[in-house]
Write a structure and sequence with these properties.
By secondary structure, the chain is mainly α. Helix content is about 50%, strand content about 0%.
């Protein structure tokens, strides 16, 4: 991992390379850091009406970041695995398939 000063210089140079100001490069780095912290959906998504930045700003910052050596994979959400709510599973032992059949038909699940 590069230190922050190197990242800033890298993004400033990349911004100038693709035709933007060095300040825009710093803003692109901030966008990238926000994406890593909060996830892409929160910062920009067509499906999120409350996105933090506009489509044009996102595309500009993405162009700079790619020029700075960031990959498209790096733009993925911090936790790209969908988390499901945790629910405890109650288990009981059964001695036969008949007993299992009976229990599945007659015992109501405990939905708390």
């Amino acid at each position: 991992m590069e230190d922050i000063a190197s990242l800033i210089e890298n993004f400033k140079s990349a911004a100038i390379e693709v035709g933007f100001s060095s300040k825009t490069g710093v803003n692109a780095l901030k966008t990238y850091i926000l994406i890593k912290a909060e996830g892409l959906f929160e910062i920009y998504s067509k499906e999120n009406p409350n996105s933090y930045i506009s489509k044009s700003t996102f595309n500009k910052h993405k162009k700079i970041a790619l020029s700075a050596g960031i990959t498209l994979y790096d733009f993925q959400a911090k936790d790209s695995v969908v988390k499901f709510p945790e629910k405890p599973i109650s288990m009981i032992s059964v001695d036969s398939w008949d007993e299992l059949n009976f229990l599945t038909k007659h015992v109501k699940p405990n939905n708390k």
